[in-house]
Each structure stands twice: as C-alpha cells, then as structure tokens.
Amino acid sequence: MTVNAIEIRNLGKRYRIVSGLPVIQQQQKSPILAALSGRLKKRDVWAIKNINIDIQAGSIVAIMGDNGSGKSTLLRLISEISDPTEGEIFLRGSVTPMLEAGVGFHPELTGRENIYLNGTLMGLSRKALSNRFNDIVDYAGVREYLDTPIKRYSSGMWARLAFAVATHQNRDILIVDEVLSVNDKGFREKSITRLKQLAETGVTILIVSHDVALLNDLCSHAILLKNGRLVAQGGYQAIHALYYDSDKYD
Amino acid sequence: MTKHIRSNNKRFRQVGFSAIWQSRELLLHIMKRDLLVTYKQTLLGIGWVAIQPVAMALSIIFVFEHIGSFPDYGVPYILIALTALVCWDFFAGAVNKATTCLTDDRDLIVRANFPRIVLLINASLKNLPGPLINMCVLFGFMFYFDVPFLFSLLLVPLVIIAVALLNLALGLWLGTLNVFKRDFATLVPYVLRLALFVSPVAFTLKSVPEQWQLLYSLNPLVAIIESMRFLVLGESFRPDLLCVAVGASSLAILLISGIYLFGVNERKFADVI
C-alpha cells in the first residue's frame, strides 16, 4: 500500500496587488494624497486556487507549468514560508524549510562558514552538521576551496555546494527549485543518482525546473499547473506529453 | 508524524522559548556572519570593534572637558557621561539595526522557513562588544581619578541584560512595522538622535524638575542609566525606587506588546516584505 506524503485539499493563495495608476493620480495629484483618499486601485489575484493534489511517498514529482502558473507559490505554501488563504495541506514527515538550495549563502563568507550557516538555517544541529560535513565537502568537490570566500567560486562550484548541503539532511520531503540547471555534465549525472537514491529510501522530492531533459531522466510523477489552476496530475510521461503537446494544453 | 497546514491558522509560531532555544546555533551563525561580513576586506578587521567605542568616548571627553560647563555631581563629569554611554551606545546601535534587520534579510524570509525572531535577537545583541569595551574605558578613567571600585559592579551585567531586552522590545515593534511601511527605516535614526537628548545621558535624573520625574521615568532608559550610575559610582547616585519600578513596568509592557505585534504579523512577512 502506498502512503501519501503530501495531501493538498482545496488550496488557494490570494495576493492583493496595486494595479495601474490610481484614479486620482491621473488627475495629477500626489501619490500620498491618492493613498490617503483610498483611491489606489487594488485588485485581488489568486496565485493558485482550488488545488487538490496527492503525492505518494518516495516519488519524484516534476511541478510543471509556464512562468507565473503558481509553481513557486505552491512550494512556498508547502514549506510554510507563507500561509494559505484557503484550504489545507497534510504533510507526513518533515519538509525542507527552504525553497531553493543555497538560500542565505553569503558571498563574503568562506565555503566552510556558508555550509554551517545554510545548514543551521535548515534546522540541522551543529552535531548533525559536523557528522555530515565531510560528506558535503567531498560531494561538492570543494575541499581545496573550503576557506575561500565563495564570491571567488565559479557558478558551478557555488551550485554544487548548495546542492550538496540541500541533499545531505534527513528530511522526508525535499524541495528542489531550479538548482541543477547550471551544472556540468558530470555533476548532473551525480546529482540525478543522488536524488534517485534518496527517493528509494522513501524521500519525496518535488522539482521545479525548465530543464526538460533533466526532468525526463528523473521524475516518476508530475503536476501541471496553468494560471494557478491544476490542469492534471499523474505519471510523468503522460503529463509531459500533455504539456508539450500544445494543442491539448491550450 | 503528520503536519496539518490550514488557512486561518492565527496561532503564534516560532516565538516561544523552545523555538528560540532550538535555534541558538542558527543565532550564533548569524551573529558570526554579521560580525565577519562587516569587517571582511578591511585593513583593521575585527579591530574596528574596539576602535569605534574608544573613538566615541574620546570625542565625548573632548566635548565635556573643553566645551561644556556642567553642575558638580561630586565625581568627574566624564564618569557620569561614560556610565550612560555604555548603555546608550549599545541601545542606539541595536535599535537602528533591528529596525531594518528583517528587510535586510528579505532573501531569507521569502525563501526559507526558520524562526524569524532570531534575526531580531541577533540585531538586539548587535554591538555587544561595544559596551564591554566602553566599560574598559570607563574603568581606565575610574582608575585615573582614583574612584573606588565597588562590589556592586558585579551587578552591571543585569543592567546590560535590561538594555538588551529593551533593544529587543523596540526591535520587535520597529522591525515589524518596517516590514509593512519602510518609513521607519528613515525615521528611526532621527528619533534616536532626539532620544539621546531626552534620555539622561549627558545629565542625571536630578536635573529634571521633581514633578516631571515620574512621567520622565516612563522612558526605560532613565531607570537603566540611573541604575548603572548607582552600581558604578555608588551611594550618591541611588535611584528613586519608584522611578525604577515605573521604568521596569514600561519595559515589560513594551516587550510583551512587541512580542504580540510580531507574533500576530509574522505569518504575513513573506507576502508583504
């Protein structure tokens, strides 16, 4: 019997945005006056709405959709960075508390300092980090540059280090947002293997990427979003066909 | 282990003692980051931490020795000023930083889920080496003027803790407000400059007309600075207990209301920052 790691019910997120010039400003008055008189034109935008998703534990799920379709908003709600406006999410297990790998990396700090800062941000204790430190360093292949500020790193090294810290933590649900796109071929193979291994041990992985080849290699399932609505969910191949077969999608 | 995220959940999260205690390592690493980053690629490096308070003290000395004329308090005026400066420097630096600490780390707030109160605790302890070095300067002058070192000096850390709590209280207020309206980042430095003159840094509570003293003590810095002078300079500076009580209550109210304001709004930070 398969267990759902994530169940999403009727989820929606609304943002209120200022849209266009306020009426009064068109009459050449100051924006302060406009704001005071409450005439700034505001509009509600549902970044996502009516989302119902089930995700099996141990699956690698591609979250697909055009820019602005609500992929990041969905991940932000799952990782509890922001609160839903309506609906609910059930999570079985712990979620990476981070939307992207390498959040909080500071260019002036050394590789070593950044590993500790990023790791503690993810909620790892000093002890857990020390245990994993060598694995992370070897995996990223930055041992020679550990005490170099990462502003001197190549973008590949930076991304490898970020990926290494992100995937060396005991989380049941891992969120990977556009992190693998800059890497070289060798590291790409290595990271695909790493993610597949994690999935085999029961870790659920959610991936957002515009790198189709990567998704092809990696994902077992997919979710397709369009304009904040769920278009389809299911096996990766079927969803992929739906998305790229533009006749059906549009 | 199932976690249930639902809309309309208004409960405070990650502001309790256990959440803060669990994030102590994160706090240490963020403190370390700020300390290292400020002084990277500088010639003097961490030496600046010591130079800044000493330079400030020297400029105060110059002003007070050569320009000002002040009433006789029974001890050299410089000691009156320096005791207050220990608190004031710590306070002003931290409140400035706390106001913008959330917006400065916008990147973390929109992309990671961690107890954000850690950023405010970090800001309210900013410049902690400052008061320590100011204390050393003060001790130097006490030695020079032959002022006795009292046992009550051992209680000075309590005053420093009170300042840190005040920093946190104002930080919770101003930091949260600044997430919503950035006016506070511009406003706070001016208000602090004004606050320097309405806090008993360059004078003592005795210079305030008697009928106003209680009202004046609503400013928690009054009790803090007066207690500091009492602990360092002795009996002749014993503060009025009522004034201290008023200051302590006002600090408690600021802190509790600050935690409330922060707790209520913290869930919205990622959406509006």
Question: Which helices and strands occur, and which strands form pairs?
Answer:
The complex is a heterodimer of chains A (250) and B (273).
Chain A (H helix, E strand, L loop, with lengths): L3 E15 L4 H4 L4 H6 L5 E15 L3 E5 L6 H8 L7 E7 L18 H11 L4 H15 L14 H13 L5 E5 L7 H16 L3 E5 L3 H7 L2 E6 L2 E7 H9 L1 H4 L1
Parallel strand pairs in A: 3-6, 3-7, 5-6
Antiparallel strand pairs in A: 1-2, 1-4, 7-8
Chain B lengths: L1 E5 L10 H6 L1 H16 L7 H20 L10 H28 L1 H6 L5 H8 L4 H16 L11 H25 L2 H16 L14 H4 L3 H14 L7 H25 L3 H4 L1
Helix pairs in contact in B: 2-6, 3-4, 3-7, 4-6, 4-7, 4-8, 4-9, 4-11, 6-8, 8-9, 8-11, 8-12, 11-12
Write a structural description.
The complex is a heterodimer of chains A (250) and B (273). Chain A has 250 residues and is α/β, with parallel strands linked by helices. Chain A is 37% helix and 26% strand. Chain A has helices at residues 23-26, 31-36, 71-78, 111-121, 126-140, 155-167, 185-200, 212-218, 236-244, 246-249; strands spanning 4-18, 42-56, 60-64, 86-92, 173-177, 204-208, 221-226, 229-235. In chain A, the strands form two sheets. In chain A, strands 5-6-3-7-8 form a five-stranded mixed sheet, sandwiched between helices. Chain A has a three-stranded antiparallel sheet with strand order 2-1-4, with helices on one face. In chain A, helix 7 links the parallel strand 5 (173-177) and strand 6. In chain A, helix 4 runs parallel beside helix 6. The radius of gyration of chain A is 21 Å and the shape is globular. Chain A starts with a strand and ends with a helix. The model of chain A has no long low-confidence stretch (mean pLDDT 85). Chain B has helices at 17-22, 24-39, 47-66, 77-104, 106-111, 117-124, 129-144, 156-180, 183-198, 213-216, 220-233, 241-265, 269-272; one strand at 2-6. At the A-B interface, helix 3, strand 4 and helix 4 of A face strand 1, helix 2 and helix 5 of B.
